[in-house]
């Protein structure tokens, strides 16, 4: 019997709702695959602010570091939107990414044949077969760059400012993860930047080009981010296989890519601390969507992004590939049965969440 400890960070809004389903799925999968999970739930985000006054309590970070992998729901909500920076739920999320040093965020966007017909807002021939992997740098760039803050300028005008910074080593390591990832896919890597304007992007392009020497089997191209945003909805399959980009561009492009697949409620992610090939201690898995305060508490949240993040946890975090595949297949079969939450672009009817869970459980056990 294999045993793993998993830290669960339900967070806020729909976070606890989707984590609870993902936890049940992991438990059932574990019992079918001979794996025992030891779950520990810890507060983070707004719920931690309410409980202990900080968005990432020391105990939560410590528990995350002491477990085999971390699964996060989502954080944030209207209630905390006007808090000072250090008292925002989002600050807790940035702190845990930084604290676990998970600099590489893999965000796959795959158009599943099962949902394709009604689920994409793009034309069938454009959406069909899309399979893009966004490799987003997660612990640098404008999210973390200094100086940052507010000040008053010489005219007495209030100014807010941030800095986009990348050191060569930060670019080199994310580039290597991206080349390794592309190598295992179609071998095409597109580096997205704004090197026509930003110095940090000029260095980015230079370093990615230099690292490409180590990967002669991967075809590298470069694209400006504005063009990339356009190409993603023009002809994603022809243009993209693997994308590597900075923190903020990756945030935006992955939400855009999610819509090609039908809904942001289905896209998972893995945040890794070193090359995909090398073992590293810390791994964080999270859906790419947020806490969806507009639908929280109404039993409408799509749990699939978190369930698929749990599958990524099994695959990338614990190397339990069979268990991961069991979950992925159960998700496909459930969608194939026509069961879907309201966020999946559709003219059809919305399934009851209970039915969705029951279907997942059946398909998990059937495999
Ligand atoms: P959001 O992703 O929470 O929601 C955007 C839209 O998508 C909403 O209409 C929402 O109802 C819908 N949606 C998202 N996930 C869904 C799901 N699983 N099922 C069904 N519908 C879903 O983005 P937002 O509204 O810009 O942000 C809300 C809050 O979440 C903010 O406080 C933001 O900072 C935070 N946020 C957190 C994370 C995270 O925890 N990783 C990510 C993004 C945003
Ligand atoms: C995400 C979110 C976060 C980000 C926010 C909530 C800090 O949008 O995980 O995509 O920008 O990274
Ligand atoms: Mn985002």
From TrEMBL:
The keyword NAD applies. Pfam families: Iso_dh. InterPro entries: IsoCit/isopropylmalate_DH_CS, IsoPropMal-DH-like_dom, Isopropylmalate_DH. Pathway: Amino-acid biosynthesis; L-leucine biosynthesis; L-leucine from 3-methyl-2-oxobutanoate: step 3/4. It is an enzyme of class 1 (oxidoreductase). One of its GO terms (biological process) is L-leucine biosynthetic process. Catalyzes the oxidation of 3-carboxy-2-hydroxy-4-methylpentanoate (3-isopropylmalate) to 3-carboxy-4-methyl-2-oxopentanoate. The product decarboxylates to 4-methyl-2 oxopentanoate. Belongs to the isocitrate and isopropylmalate dehydrogenases family. This is 3-isopropylmalate dehydrogenase.
């Amino acid at each position: 019997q294999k045993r793993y400890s998993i830290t669960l960070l339900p967070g806020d809004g729909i976070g606890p709702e989707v984590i609870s389903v993902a936890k049940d799925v992991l438990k059932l999968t574990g019992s079918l695959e001979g794996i025992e999970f030891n779950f520990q739930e810890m507060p983070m985000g707004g719920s931690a602010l309410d409980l202990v006054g900080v968005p990432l309590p020391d105990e939560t970070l410590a528990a995350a570091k002491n477990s085999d992998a971390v699964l996060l729901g989502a954080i944030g909500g209207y209630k905390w939107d006007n808090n000072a920076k250090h008292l925002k739920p989002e600050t807790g999320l940035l702190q845990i990414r930084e604290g676990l040093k998970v600099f590489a965020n893999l965000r796959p966007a795959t158009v599943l044949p099962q949902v394709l017909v009604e689920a994409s807002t793009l034309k069938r021939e454009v959406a069909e077969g899309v399979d893009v992997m966004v490799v987003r740098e997660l612990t640098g760039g404008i999210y973390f760059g200094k100086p940052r803050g507010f000040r008053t300028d010489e005219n007495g005008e209030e100014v807010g400012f941030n800095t986009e910074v990348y050191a060569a080593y930060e670019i080199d390591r994310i580039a290597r993860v991206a080349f390794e990832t592309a190598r295992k896919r179609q071998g095409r890597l597109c580096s997205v930047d704004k090197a026509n304007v930003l110095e940090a992007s000029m260095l980015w392009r230079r370093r990615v080009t230099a690292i490409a020497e180590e990967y002669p089997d991967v075809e590298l191209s470069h694209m400006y981010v504005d063009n990339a945003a356009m190409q993603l909805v023009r002809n994603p399959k022809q243009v993209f296989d693997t994308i590597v980009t900075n923190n903020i561009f990756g945030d935006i492009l992955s939400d855009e890519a999610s819509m090609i697949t039908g809904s942001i409620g289905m896209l998972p992610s893995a945040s890794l601390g070193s090359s995909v090939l090398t073992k590293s201690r810390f791994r964080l898995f999270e859906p790419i969507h947020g806490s969806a305060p507009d639908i929280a508490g109404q039993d409408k949240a799509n749990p699939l992004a978190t369930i698929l993040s749990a599958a990524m946890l099994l695959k990338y975090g614990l190397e339990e590939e069979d268990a991961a595949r069991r979950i992925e297949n159960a998700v496909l079969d459930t969608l194939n049965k026509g069961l879907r939450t309201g966020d999946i672009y559709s003219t059809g009817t919305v399934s009851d969440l209970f039915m969705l869970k029951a279907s997942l459980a059946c398909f998990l056990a059937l495999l």
